[in-house]
Structure prediction request, 371 residues.
Amino acid sequence: MRDQTDAPSASRAEVGAEAGAGPDVPPAATRAAAAAAAAAAAVAGVRPARPRPLGEHRLWPRSFADRLTTPLPGLRAFARLAREGAFRPGPEGLRGIPDLPYAPAPLPAVAAGTASVTWAGHASWILRIGGLTVLTDPVWSRRILGTPARMTPVGVRWEALPPVDAVVISHNHYDHLDAPTLKRLPRTTPLFVPAGLARWCRRRGFTRVTELDWWESAELGGVRFEFVPAHHWSKRSLMDACRTLWGGWMLSAAEGRGDAAKKVYFAGDTGYGHWFGEIGRRHPGIDLALLPIGAYAPRWWLRDVHADPEEAVQACLDVGARRMAPMHWGTFVLSSEPVMEPLQRVRAAWARTGLPREHLWDLPVGASRAL
Prediction:
């Protein structure tokens, strides 16, 4: 059920535990009931009337394991994964690497009243909304722990970035929280992170760190940053599973700004589940959903924490977004599906919905699109 990038190789099985569908996991009905109970508990009382103050120091529970949609896999699931050895695509699946879409281009000018997104690769986006430049899960490193080097280079050179006004982090796995990349930023850069992760950031010298629980928000420069739930987990070392929260981000401009109508949902890393419908109910009128479509095979192992392409399209429908931009594929080899398969499947799934083809923003790495 886990990314194979969130722990040292000795605990790779734990990292992969995101699939959670091993034979020792409770039946689906039991897991669904537990998830519904956890959802009700999580939603109750966590929606503040006003945005939280920026940079406040807060106390959190020692663990967020009660937020898991499904239990983490046990020994029988690990044993099955070891027997099957399905960590990476075979030679045939890797032959598509030269075909991965990569088209770096200068960042477009952004006029007042518009917003733009640029895909730097994996879950890293350059969002420009409400006059701010925001990075999502920035990973500019060539390699991350436990994986081969990038299949495609970063889509935008670091030196070509405009001044970064804020960074949002979805969770602490190594392919989403990259310390070498963050070191390139001024330590005064505002960081928006999940509950429990501010300490990690402050230890590295960052002075403007805002950590939020699900459904909490904060505002910067007229843009609201709301942390929303995801079906995932967290882990960065052998002994810290679920010590920090995980989720996605809703970015919207405040009333009265030129692009106040623009709303962008960054899902982070997530499986498919009930949270998408709730996010859509709380946030009608989403203009663009940035949704993960890769790192889903073997399915029995990764279903609970990584949506496949068809589920990502369904998630877009559930949240009610007008447009979808796929991500979390074509950059790092994290699982066993052929490297081009996510793109092929998401295009087919989108076509079956009957929605306008131009509303699927299947961008090459390095490409941009404006709202």
